[in-house]
Amino acid sequence: MSRRTKIVATLGPATDHPAALAGVITAGLDVARINFSHGSEAEHLGRIARLRETADRLGRAVAILADLPGPKLRVKIPVARTLTAGETILFPLLGCPVGEADIAITEPEVLSDLRPGDRMLLDDGRLRLKALGTSGGKLKAEVVIGGELLPNKGLNLPDSPLSIPAVTDRDRAALAVAAKAGVDWLALSFVRGPAAADFLRDAAAAVGMPKVPVIAKLERPEAVRLAAGIIGAFDAIMVARGDLGVEMPLEQVPTVQKQLIAEARAAGKPVITATEMLDSMQKNPRPTRAEVSDVANAICDGTDAVMLSGETAVGQYPVEAVACMARIAEEAEKRLEKVGNGFLTTTALQPRETIEDSMALAACHMAQEVGATAIVTPTISGRTPLLLARYRPAALIVAPAPNPGVMRKMSVMWGIQPVRMAPLEPGDRRMVTAVRDAFIAGAVKAGDRVVVLAGHPIEGEPRLPTVRVVRVGEDGASLEP
Ligand SMILES: Nc1ncnc2c1ncn2[C@@H]1O[C@H](COP(=O)(O)OP(=O)(O)OP(=O)(O)O)[C@@H](O)[C@H]1O
Ligand SMILES: CC(=O)C(=O)O
Ligand SMILES: [K+]
Ligand SMILES: [Mg+2]
Asked: Where does the record place the Pyruvate kinase barrel domain (predicted)?
C-alpha cells in the first residue's frame, strides 16, 4: 500500500451484491461504515458478516464502524410525499395520535421546545419549514421551501435548544446489535459536549461490548465551540459536514473543517472528513472538479480519513467512487511529500508531553535523515503508531500488532499499515521479529532501510523506549544499516 490517507465507505443496498462488496474492498476500502439510522437489525448483521467474510477472503484488514443515531431527529413517514411552499403541516407532540397527513418524528418531545419563527430543516436543509406554534397537541409549521420528502430523512432545528440525552433508546438498541456483530469503532451523532464520551462507553459496556474506541461526530455549533474537550474525551472525531452545514451557516463549514482537523492532529487523535465528498457519483461515473478538489484539500488540511456516504450506500457507482477517492488521495499525497507532509509545522507543537512522544518525533526525523522507507513499530494498543502518524512522516508506518482487533482499529489512522505480529519464540527479540513481520506482510522489502521504534515496554526488550536503524535482509532479517 502506498496510499496513506484512509478511506471510509458506508455500506448499504448498493454494496449488497457480492461483486460490489468485493469491488469496494479491492478498490481500497479501509473502514466500512454501517449507518444504524437506516436499515433493519437483520440487514446490519448480514452486511457485517458478509464484509468480514469477503475481507478475509481477499486478505484485507477492513475495520467496521458503527455509526449510531445519537439525538439526531428524523421524520417517521411511511412513504415519500411532496411538501408545497405555503402549505401547513402538523407535527404531533409526545403522546398525541398521528393523523394521516401529519408528520411524526423520532423524538417528539423536542417539539415543545420550538418557538414560533424557529426554522425546521428537512433532508440536510433541502426543505425548510417555519414553526408557527402548538395547538391541539400538535405543532403547526408552514412550508417555506418545498420539495419531495423521503421516509427517514433528518430534521434539524438549528434555532432551538436540544433537550434530548446524548445517548438515546435508539442508540441502546443499535449498540445491542453492534455488540452482537462485534464492531471496531463506534461513532456517536450530534455530540454536544465531552461528557457524551463516557455516556457512550457506559452504554456500550451495559450491552456487554468490550472496550471499543469512540468517535465524536461534530455536527452542532456547540460541539465546534467545545471541540478541544470533545477531542480529549473521545478517541477520534468526524467532521460531519452534512448536519454541520445545516446547523451552522454553510459558508463556515470549510474553515471549521480546517480548524477541527488542526485541533485533532495537535492532540494526536484521528479525524475523518465526511459527507458529499463525491456526491455527484451517486448518479455519474465521474465526479465534478469541485468534488475532486474537495477530497484533495481535506487531505492537504491533514485529515486522516475521507468518507463516502450515499455514494457507496445507495449510489450507482460504489466501486468507482472508492477507486476514484483512492486515486485522488495518492495524487494529493505526492504534494504533501514535496512540502514535507506538514511535518515541520507540526513539530512546532512544543513541548512533547511524554518520552514516547519525543522518541516518535526523533524516529520521524531519523527516518527522513537516513532515507528510511518505513518506520516499523510493534504495538500492543496502537498508541505508538498514532504518535508517529501525528507527525505525518514520509516513511510508511508499519505496525505489527498481536490481535486483529488492534489491527483493525488502526485502519482509520493516517499512514499506518497494520500487519500481523508473529508470536515470540524463545530467544527472539521483538525489534527484530517486528521487521520480519513487516517483511512477511510485504510492507518492507529486502534492501530497504527502516527505522524500528518500540515506544513502550514490549516482551524481550528493555523497558525504555528504543529506536534503531536497520537494513532489511533477504529473509526479513535485521542487518547493519
Ligand atoms: N443502509 C441504508 N439503507 C438505505 N438507504 C441508505 C442507507 N444508508 C444510507 N442511505 C441513504 O443514503 C443517504 C446518505 O447516507 P448517510 O449515511 O449520509 O445518511 P444520513 O441520513 O444523511 O444520516 P447521517 O447524518 O447519520 O449520516 C441517506 O439519507 C439515505 O437516504
Ligand atoms: C456523516 C454525518 O452524519 C453528517 O455529515 O451529517
Ligand atoms: K447515523
Ligand atoms: Mg449527521
From this structure: 3-322
